Amino acid sequence: MEFNNHITITLTINGEQQQVSVPPMARLLDIIRNKLELTGTKEGCGAGECGACAVLLDGKMVNSCLIPAIQANGSSVYTIEGLAQKEEFNCLEHSFHKKGGTQCGFCTPGMLIASYQLIKDKSSPNREEIRQAMAGNLCRCTGHQKIIDSVADAIEQLTKSPEGQ
User: Fold this and answer.
1) pTM for the model
2) What confidence score (pLDDT) does residue 40 get?
3) Can you give the residue range of the structural domain that contains 23?
């Protein structure tokens, strides 16, 4: 005997409204990766400790592995794919490549989401504020210094540009 206990939720994903049929206990991460096939969002620990699954939910960074999909019903979600079209994000991405903030790349989407959130929340954060903002994201390759350098470089570039003023 098979039960079809799915519910339909409505989300705005990267600016586009989507209706998705999901099991009641599905996580937002599972919906993003498996139903919507937006695979930039990664599952690292599954316990909200590593930040690899970070997304913006109604403008705030969350670990999507901890969010029941039903809780996101009616919400706006931005993944790494959706942020890729924003100027601040492109500057971050360039700085990560330039300063060596990416190595294996697994943590990079979460790092970029956290960096983007920091830039949106604070116009000119210092290195300590960058470290604090990145504390919820783990990287096993870079030792974090190159990531801090990457974010600082992006902030410097954005404050120099006419759009960043």
Assistant:
1) 0.88
2) 93
3) 7-82
